[in-house]
Amino acid sequence: MSVESGQQYHQNVTHFLRKAITFGDDGAVVSLGWLPAKAAVIRGGAVVSTAFNAGSGNILDIGFRAAGDGTTADPDEYATDLALGTAGVIVADEMATAADAYLPEGAEITCSPALSGTAATEGAAVVWVEYIVDNSDA
User: Tens digits of per-residue pLDDT, 64-86?
Assistant: First the structure.
């Protein structure tokens, strides 16, 4: 799989990737976009605007795939089983211990909603990951 370039401004600002998801994305691997080389992931989560209402499980994982340096993909590196059943800001629960927060050759950031039980009829959120870039060459 080819590695794509991620967004990087020359100023020292926090960058982010974001993607809107709904209950219709159940079971999909949704791409938020690409980290540039030498980026470090610092925060992430989901802003749930409409609570997901599947019968027994409304969860979300956030991770990465297609790292340019060959680092093994990890679909829940930054968040595992975030609860989407209540509206609000749900922060990524594994950022403090993420071994792959720094990906020297970039990677594609993904999220995976998993709904179980009776079929959901509503649910909407914006998933985000914040990162800082290496501007030492800028």
Answer: 999 999 999 999 999 999 999 99
Q: Is residue 32's pLDDT more than 60?
A: yes
- Say if CB 90 and CB 44 are below 8 A apart: no
pTM of the predicted model over 0.85: yes
DSSP string, the chain: -PPPPPP--SSS--EEEEEEEEGGGTT--EEEEEEPTTEEEEEEEEEEEE----SSEEEEEEEEE--TT-PPPEEEEEEEEEE-SSSEEEE-SSGGG-TTSEETT-EEEEEEEEEESSPP---EEEEEEEEE---TT-
Residue recorded with tokens 């950022």: 95
Buried-state track 58-82, b at ≥16 Cβ within 10 A, e below 16? bbbbbbbbbbbeebebbebbbbeeb
